[in-house]
Amino acid sequence: MSGERRRAVIALGGNMGDRTEILRRGMSDIDELDGTRVVIASSLYETPALTMHGIDETVRPYLNAVVIVTTDRNPHELLSLLQTIEDRHGRRRGERWGSRTLDLDIISMDGIELATETLEIPHPAAWQRAFVLAPWHEIDPDAQIPGRGSVEQLLSVATDRVLLYAESGLGARGREGVSTDRGLPLRCPTEGGDAGTATER
Ligand SMILES: Nc1ncnc2c1ncn2[C@@H]1O[C@H](COP(=O)(O)OP(=O)(O)OP(=O)(O)O)[C@@H](O)[C@H]1O
Ligand SMILES: Nc1nc2c(c(=O)[nH]1)N=C(CO)CN2
């Protein structure tokens, strides 16, 4: 079923397998969803794992990114499509906040506010996670979270660390309207390589 066209913010994260490849493919997969197009994609960021016990430096760090899409799918349809992508990338649903190949969360969708058993928008934890706020701020510095405030302000008080890691590699279209030169050196964009210089915030 298709309906009115909306803008949605989707967060990607994963800490298993070839993280760079999986996040980049995840972005392309989103772009290929029925009725859905990626308008802009953030860089990839490396972030320490947030677990049920807090930040755990002994767990493999995540790569995180955010894309903004336009979609004619309704929120539940979009969630279900995103879950098929997670499954395709070998996602196993187990421990809450446990390691995973690919996690796709709907962070916001235009002005929609909803809370059902299977879907809450805006995402209830996004406002306090730098690993969502930093990539989101990169591609939409004026973004707001209804009821929480500006992404910029929320990011300024978030305490988890975020390292710029690599370009999204989505190509020119994904970078439209965004200055790519933010003065931040990038880390090695391929898995297994030694990390180059990184800028920490
Ligand atoms: N905004 C949302 N985006 C994605 N999933 C959501 C959202 N709101 C609720 N959910 C529900 O959360 C369920 C569990 O998702 P998931 O396993 O990815 O949680 P998690 O990633 O461990 O935790 P978190 O949601 O805090 O990041 C999903 O099956 C989905 O029904
Ligand atoms: N750094 C980081 N930690 C996490 C992440 C994530 O995307 N990045 N996702 C989680 C479950 O949604 C749990 N912990």
Automatic annotation (TrEMBL):
GO biological process: folic acid biosynthetic process; tetrahydrofolate biosynthetic process
Substrates-to-products reaction catalysed: 6-hydroxymethyl-7,8-dihydropterin + ATP = (7,8-dihydropterin-6-yl)methyl diphosphate + AMP + H(+)
Record-linked PANTHER family: 2-AMINO-4-HYDROXY-6-HYDROXYMETHYLDIHYDROPTERIDINE PYROPHOSPHOKINASE
Organism: Pseudoclavibacter chungangensis
CDD domains referenced in this protein's UniProt entry, alphabetically: HPPK (cd00483)
Gene of this entry: folK
Chain intervals for the UniProt region annotation (Disordered): 173-201
Pathway(s) of this molecule: Cofactor biosynthesis; tetrahydrofolate biosynthesis; 2-amino-4-hydroxy-6-hydroxymethyl-7,8-dihydropteridine diphosphate from 7,8-dihydroneopterin triphosphate: step 4/4
Keyword tags: ATP-binding, Folate biosynthesis, Kinase, Nucleotide-binding, Transferase
Official protein name in the record: 2-amino-4-hydroxy-6-hydroxymethyldihydropteridine diphosphokinase
Recorded superkingdom: Bacteria
Limits of the 7,8-dihydro-6-hydroxymethylpterin-pyrophosphokinase domain: 96-107
EC number: 2.7.6.3
Gene Ontology terms, MF aspect: 2-amino-4-hydroxy-6-hydroxymethyldihydropteridine diphosphokinase activity; ATP binding; kinase activity
